[in-house]
Amino acid sequence: MLVQQSFINHVNTIIEEIDKGMWKDREQFLCNNINSLMSRLLMDQSQQVIGNHQVVESIHQLKEALTLLSKSVPNRINQLTIHALNIVGTGKPFGHKERLEIANHLPSKTVEDIHESLAIFKDLISKDSAGVEALAHWISYEQIPLSKLDFSKQELQSILTHLTFLRLDHTVGQHMREEDIQNMISQCEKLEFLELENDDIKKLSQLPGGLKRLTCRSNSLEEISNLNEGLKVFDCGSCENLKKLPDHLPDSLEEFYCYDCPSLEKISVLNNDLREFVCTNSPLITLPYTLNSGLKTFDCSQCPMQTLPVLPQGLKKITCLECNGLTIIDRLPDSLETLDARRCHNLERIDLPPRLQQLDVRDCPKLSLPTE
Question: What total number of domains does the chain contain?
Answer without folding.
Answer: 3
